[in-house]
Amino acid sequence: MAAVEAVRQTRGSGWFVRAEEIDQATKQLEKAGILTSWEGCASFAALQKAGQQGAIKGNAVCILTGKRYPSDNAGVVRLPLINSFDEAGSWAGSNL
Known about the structure:
Blueprint: H1 2-9, H2 19-31, H3 38-52, H4 85-95
Helix pairs in contact: 2-3
């Protein structure tokens, strides 16, 4: 809730978006050739909602970060669970 309090104190704004709105934003971004993270799609959905409700006066910035991986996780490297600094050092020494 710290984020909500910061928005209130600075008299900023924020937008709640539903999963369906994020899914629609994802499709729009994909159609434009943009593959971004779920969070990036949520940001775009919130920007659209703010625009539709007349909350944007002038220019706006929408940050699309992250990379979305295919659902089959092709190319995703799984790292082992490391329980100690010794294990981390050993793993790094043999894998990096």
